[in-house]
Write a structure and sequence with these properties.
The complex is a heterodimer of chains A (312) and B (343). Chain A is mainly α. Chain A is 71% helix and 0% strand. The two termini of chain A are 41 Å apart. In chain B, α10 (200-237) crosses α12. The chains are: A mainly alpha (312), B mainly alpha (343).
């Protein structure tokens, strides 16, 4: 009985949130493109989870994220039963790298998006809710960060932190939070005018409770579309840095790094101009589909959540 | 508020922004010790002995807020340090590598604008038809395409296989001629110099080398631009003034191009900032893959070799370009749409 009452009150309290979620699910089921996106993402989730079974690292291997090598010859070898996708320069197994690279992509995407969203929510809600000096300081800081084309500031930070995958991730977080902070701030500014916030304050709720329980649940939906699109575009940016030699080290299971390994093998032999196609086409397809999946889903979210387009 | 007042106010706003930018760069440099920072000014290993005098000269041991003004003074006098990766002062390096980048952008930007706006318009006008679906599919594919991957594929097909469009800026014989005394390099932008020197074959040679990098830059950015144009065009087409124009009996072409398009372009103009940022990312990667000695490739090589003054100089320069572009866009925006400056 007590449980039931709790559930009823939860339903009442979370009513709008649940209704919103139901609405989103309903709309997604109607859009074929977002279904394709979800299928792509789920496939990658399966690959990431099953990585140790799909591509078991050699017995006693020191780090599953380092691609095992089969010899040290420079020339890539084409796909064979032994190496399904062939080997890259330095005999790194491309199949192994692509499979474990999926885990790297999810790790990079989830950590970076998670941290930027959390920072954005924290700073945006404090800024919007309290206003005044705190708001002024944070907003001027976002102005300065916005005065740089994003990638340039990331590059500076990577150089200062020392090139590595972790530095690239850290740099993207430090440069990326203002987008979310501004979104949340705008929403919070709008919501804090509402009567229910007034009511919560009148009942004596602490500021923290008002923000977390009453303001934020209504403010985070617009973040959904941006965060979903970012899952793809951040993996793309990190791959670009790895490709340029500023991210993952050589031999690491990272799609961008694997394409960097193919840079000397773009042009084949006169007899067969596409002789080494597998060194760049296969890892490229992995990046492309991963980003495409998140892009399709993010697009659907954006159409659903955009007040100008929704419910038409 | 008149347009002049608006422009003046917007110009004045540039000052605090640039102060913020320099403060941030300066703050980042503070992660290094004075000795490391002194080494940023070193041109020759033999100077290492006189590190103390460099620290003295550039006031690197002073408290940060005083140091900032000394540093800013150096920056304003064009002393951004020494780029060890190319062995020249950073400012000189920027001027050295800028022409190749400029050449790419002066061809890419008009193509991006024309194609992006046209595709966006077509998709909106033919909403929910095959045309719209194809254009939207292109947009999402372009958005998901890694720039470095598309560059590699373009190279493999059009250079490796078809031998049509080679990488770099010029072929060997053209490059020899361009660097000979018979050829005056007015702007160091090859296609323009070739025309000024009356050498059409150099012009076509340079153009051939530009096709792939420009195409690669265009694909991704067109995808971003056309999406925005499409949605703002859709919004405009739903407005009552479009209905009124149609009711008046105006030809559909005129309704679309004069009534809807003009209004639809206003939101699209605000995208210019994002386009410049996307352009820079594209340039860094495209120049690296196609081996074009532009500012982006210089910055990447500097970053790999931990040539910190070069990277910082590049960042300052890029943010200056970025901020000024945004300023021009804002002014254009106010010019097109009087509501902005009156508001």
């Amino acid at each position: 009985m007590v449980l039931r009452v709790r559930f009823e009150s939860f339903k009442k309290e979370a009513g709008p949130t649940i209704r919103e979620l139901k609405f989103i699910v309903k709309r997604i089921r109607k859009s074929p493109l977002s279904i394709v996106g979800i299928i792509i993402i789920l496939t990658f989730v399966a690959i990431a989870i099953l990585a140790p079974i799909l591509a078991p690292p050699p017995e006693g291997w020191y780090d599953p994220y380092m691609i095992p090598r089969d010899g040290f010859s420079v020339t890539p070898r084409p796909p064979s039963p032994e190496h399904l996708f062939g080997t890259a320069e330095g005999q790194y197994d491309i199949y192994y790298g692509c499979i474990w690279g999926t885990r790297t992509a999810f790790r990079v995407g989830l950590i970076v998006v998670g941290c930027t969203v959390l920072m954005g929510i924290a700073i945006g809600s404090i800024s919007g809710y309290y206003g005044g000096k705190i708001d002024e300081i944070f907003m001027r800081l976002t102005d300065v960060i916005y005065a740089f084309p994003g990638i340039v500031l990331v590059m500076v930070l990577v150089v200062i932190l020392g090139p590595s995958l972790e530095s690239v991730m850290m740099a993207i977080i430090l440069v990326g939070w203002p987008t979310y902070a501004r979104l949340v701030r705008g929403e919070v500014l709008r919501i804090k005018q509402e009567d229910f916030v007034e009511a919560a304050k009148a009942m004596g709720c602490s500021d923290f409770r008002v923000i977390v329980r009453h303001v934020l649940p209504n403010a985070i939906f617009p973040l959904l579309a941006v965060a979903t699109l970012d899952m793809g575009s951040i993996v793309l940016t990190v791959a670009a840095f790895s490709f340029l030699g500023l991210g993952a080290p050589i031999g690491y299971a990272d799609w961008g790094q694997m394409i960097a390994l193919s840079r000397n093998w773009i042009i084949g032999t006169p007899a067969n101009p596409y002789e080494y196609w597998y060194t760049f086409i296969i890892p490229g397809i992995f990046i492309f589909t991963f980003v495409l999946g998140w892009g399709l889903l993010g697009d659907a979210f954006r159409d659903i959540l955009d007040p100008m387009l929704r419910r038409r | 508020m008149g347009l002049t007042t608006y422009v003046v106010r917007r110009l004045l706003l540039l000052i605090p922004t640039m102060i913020g930018v320099t403060l941030l760069i300066f703050a980042l440099v503070q992660f290094f010790s004075p000795i490391e920072r002194a080494s940023l000014y070193i041109r020759d290993p033999r100077q290492a002995r006189s590190l103390e005098s460099i620290i003295e000269k550039y006031h690197l041991n002073d408290p940060p807020h005083i140091q900032y003004f000394y540093w800013l003074n150096e920056v304003l006098h064009g002393n951004l340090g020494w780029s060890k990766s190319v062995n020249m002062p950073v400012v000189q390096a920027i001027f050295e590598f800028l022409p190749a980048t400029l050449e790419l952008t002066i061809y890419a930007i008009p193509i991006i604008l024309v194609v992006g706006v046209w595709l966006g318009k077509m998709a909106a006008v033919h909403k929910d038809t095959a045309v719209d679906h194809i254009i939207r599919a292109f947009a999402i594919i372009g958005w998901s395409l890694p720039t470095f991957w598309s560059a590699i594929i373009l190279l493999a097909v059009f250079y490796g296989h078809l031998k049509l469009f080679p990488p770099e800026r010029l072929s060997t014989e053209a490059s020899l001629f361009v660097n000979s005394p018979n050829f005056i390099r007015y702007t160091r932008i090859n296609t323009i110099d070739a025309l000024l020197n009356g050498q059409p074959w150099i012009f076509f040679d340079a153009l051939r080398h530009l096709v792939l990098p420009v195409l690669n830059l265009t694909i991704v950015i067109v995808a971003i631009l056309m999406r925005v144009v499409r949605s703002s065009m859709l919004e405009a087409l739903g407005k009552t003034y479009v209905l009124a124009a149609r009711a008046k009996g105006l030809p559909e072409k005129e309704v679309i191009n004069k009534h809807a398009m003009r209004n639809a372009m206003i939101p699209a103009v605000t995208l210019a900032g994002a386009l410049v940022a996307g352009m820079l990312t594209g340039l860094v990667i495209t120049e690296t893959v196609f081996n074009i000695p532009g500012i982006g490739r210089w910055a990447v090589n500097a970053a790999i070799q931990l040539d910190i003054p070069a990277v910082l100089g590049f960042a300052l320069f890029a943010s200056l370009v970025y901020v000024i572009t945004n300023l021009i866009v804002d002014i254009l925006y106010a010019y097109i749409d009087p509501r902005i400056r009156l508001g």
